[in-house]
Amino acid sequence: MSADSSTPDRTDSTAATAPGPQPEPLRFFGTTWVGHDNGYGARRVGVAAGSLLAAAAGCFVLRFAYEGMAIADVGTFVNFLVLIMFSICSAIAFRRTWEGFTRRHDPASQSSMRGLLTIGFVGVFLAYFFRSLTEAPGETLHREEYEAAREQYAKRTARRAGNPSRKNRKG
């Protein structure tokens, strides 16, 4: 503190925020999606590149697993079943993740799908890649919810006419 105790010389880390609802941060983006500032474009490029790289790495790992099954000579039927399983799980995971960018899923159904999403991880990475080409994944959903919350807040605060204890009561 400085000599004058009324003015501290430190900066307060909790900056004053505007009253009302605050935007919900997105994974990898924080709240930069609101105004597309503070490196929003670079973050989108990074998410797109990272998710595509992760999907490619996942396919590479799956290729090794498939070759391991071929070396173990488990048979063509088992190889076919594993290939179909990963394909279907990836397609379902892609669709589920893609829908999750525009609407919220029920938490119970989300937890029941966790295993399928884990198996179809390549589909999840591809959904992130394709969505990040146009916007931050989940930006549309968060923007709609944020705008609705701001409108509700504006309606609530507009109805207030002052301090209710100061009303003139005739009686």
What would you say this structure looks like, in words?
Helix content is 60%, strand content 0%. By secondary structure, the chain is mainly α. The model is unreliable at 1-15 (pLDDT under 50). The longest helix has 33 residues, at 40-72. The chain contains six helices and no strands. Helix 1 packs antiparallel against helix 5 (121-132) and helix 2 runs parallel beside helix 5 (121-132).
Salient structural properties:
single chain; 171 residues; mainly alpha; 6 helices; 0% strand; disordered N terminus
Entry summary:
The protein has 171 residues and is mainly alpha-helical. It has six helices and no strands.
Fold blueprint:
Layout: H1 40-72, H2 76-100, H3 107-112, H4 114-119, H5 121-132, H6 139-159
Helix pairs in contact: 1-5, 2-5
Average pLDDT confidence is: 85
Order of helices and strands: HHHHHH
- SS field, number of helical segments: 6
Number of strands: 0
Share of β-strand residues: under 5%
- N- and C-termini, Cα separation: 55 Å
Shape: elongated
Supply Rg: 25 Å
Largest beta-sheet details: none
